[in-house]
Structures are given as structure tokens and as C-alpha cells.
């Protein structure tokens, strides 16, 4: 019979999974190794950490955004539910980068989910959307000449 491990010394299986997936999430904006590991794992492997990966495209000036952006866009339609909270939120700069990096030149299935929203932003932006140039990037995503 195996040794009995005291309850205080047991490792929570969920924390082991979290530690395993942490290797696919950049620790900082220069953590290209983690970004490359996420790309190599692919979809649906990264699904448990997709929200964390999306956080790394909040600024296209971050080096990891250049690796993660094309990868996330390539996921296509399955990415749509994860973009809704961002596009419904108040972080207009993050919205800008989601539209620019993920929806511009997106696979048609992904773009289709957001066409009405992009049309509204392009044609009737709110003041904050206009200030952050979301109207311009939305028009670009729709293939309009701006």
C-alpha cells in the first residue's frame, strides 16, 4: 500500500493543469518563448488560456503581439466568443488592436460574426470610438477604402 500523503501536502490537480498551461502564456511582453510555445500548441490546445493570450494583443507595440496576433487570427470562427467581451468592453485601445490584428484580413467565418458591429463603428462611431480611430480600422476590416 502506498504512503498516505497528509491533506496539507497534496497538490491540487487543477493547480497542476494551471502550472502546465502557464508555459504557454507570456510572462511579459518580451516572452517570445511562451508565445512560440502557444503557437506550436495550436488550437484547440490553447483554448484553456485563450483569454490570457488575448490580453497580450492589447498593444501591438509589444513583441509578443506580433507572434500571437497572426496565430489568434488563424483560429478563425472558434475565436469569436472570446472576442465578444473585449468588443463589448470599454477598453477602446484593446478594441482597436482586436479589430486591426484579428479582424482585418480575418477568415470570413470570424469576420461574419462581427460585420454588423464593424459597420456600426465605421458608419456611426461613438465619440470614444472616433477618438481612438476605431471607425477607420473598422472600415479597413470591412475592406472599405478609408
Q: Return residue spans where pLDDT drops below 50 for at least 5 consecutive residues.
A: 3-7
Helical fraction equals 55-70%
Number of domains: 2
CATH fold type of the largest domain: Serine Threonine Protein Phosphatase 5, Tetratricopeptide repeat
* Strand segment tally: 0
pLDDT averaged over residues: 89
Q: In one word, what is the shape? A: globular
CATH superfamily of the largest domain: Domain of unknown function DUF5071
Radius of gyration: 19 Å
Q: Structural class of the secondary elements?
A: mainly alpha
Give the ordered list of helices and strands.
HHHHHHHHH
CATH second-level architecture of the largest domain: Alpha Horseshoe
Number of helices in the DSSP assignment: 9
Beta-strand residue fraction:
under 5%
N-end to C-end Cα span: 72 Å
- How many strands, what sense, and barrel or not for the largest sheet? none
- Name of the CATH class of the largest domain: Mainly Alpha
SSE arrangement:
Layout: H1 13-22, H2 32-41, H3 50-55, H4 63-75, H5 80-87, H6 92-103, H7 108-123, H8 127-131, H9 134-141
Helix pairs in contact: 2-4, 6-9, 7-9
Quick structural summary:
The chain contains nine helices and no strands. With 146 residues, the protein is mainly alpha-helical.
Which properties best describe this structure?
single chain; mainly alpha; Serine Threonine Protein Phosphatase 5, Tetratricopeptide repeat; 2 domains; 60% helix; globular
